[in-house]
Amino acid sequence: MDRFNAIITISRQYGSYGKEIGEKVAKNLNIPYYDKEILNLAAKESGICKELFIQNDEKPTNSLLFSMVTGMRGMGELNSVYMDMPLNHKLFLAQFDTIKRIGSQGPCVIVGRCADYVLKENPNTFRVFIYGDFETRVQNIINDFKLDYKQAKEVAQKKDRQRSSYYSYFAGEDWGKKENYDLCINSSRITTDFAAKIIQDYVQVWNK
Fold first, then answer.
1. Distance between CA atoms of 59 and 167, rounded to whole angstroms?
2. How would residue 198 be classed by pLDDT, with cut points 50, 70 and 90?
3. Is 188 exposed, middle or buried (0-12, 13-18, 19+ CB in 10 A)?
4. Strands of the 33-34 sheet, one edge to the other
5. Is the pLDDT of residue 154 over 50?
6. Residue 84 has what pLDDT?
């Protein structure tokens, strides 16, 4: 492997601050960062409307929403390559293609969306899973979104179920299973800055 050529993929439990940690890693290493940006790029490259990606991001597909926009087929809004398959497959394949292209361009940080699975054949892929104690994650959600305890607990459970189901369906593996990652970090016990430093130090040694 060339001197720092790593593609760092970050899977994360909701409320574990995986997004923030990924942003800090990318900033500190001066490499591109991708999270929601993948949705915009996939929409642009596939011709599928961006709202579908946003509405169905890492969660079960809303086929009714798709039926509302299929009329755009005749207006050239939807790429014909994706037209003859179920909605969830269309959206995943479009993101799959985008993530593959991003991974081919060099080092970067990619958060979520089965990126570790999509890039598993790329020897430069370094896979991270960020998790946290449930009560700490709930408190993070309360602080960030001003929800009460019951609401925050329900949000954490729902988001984790959605991400787990999404990963299991498309990757065929258990989301969060330690054997699927190069590094797992409990962010409840450390600051996001320290978590980012652990990833940076680990991946730089691994990348040699």
1. 9
2. very high
3. middle
4. 33-34, 108-111, 7-12, 125-131, 183-186
5. yes
6. 61
What pTM does this model have? Answer: 0.85
Domain carrying residue 178: 7-201
For the chain, the domain total comes to: 1
Does 1 fall in a domain?
Answer: no
CB < 8 Å & 24+ apart, contacts of 197-201: 197/28, 199/8, 199/21, 199/25, 199/128, 200/25, 200/28, 200/29
Task: Write down how long the chain is.
Answer: 208
CATH of the domain at 104: 3.40.50.300
DSSP reduced 3-state for 149: helix
Q: Write the single-letter amino acid at 8.
A: I
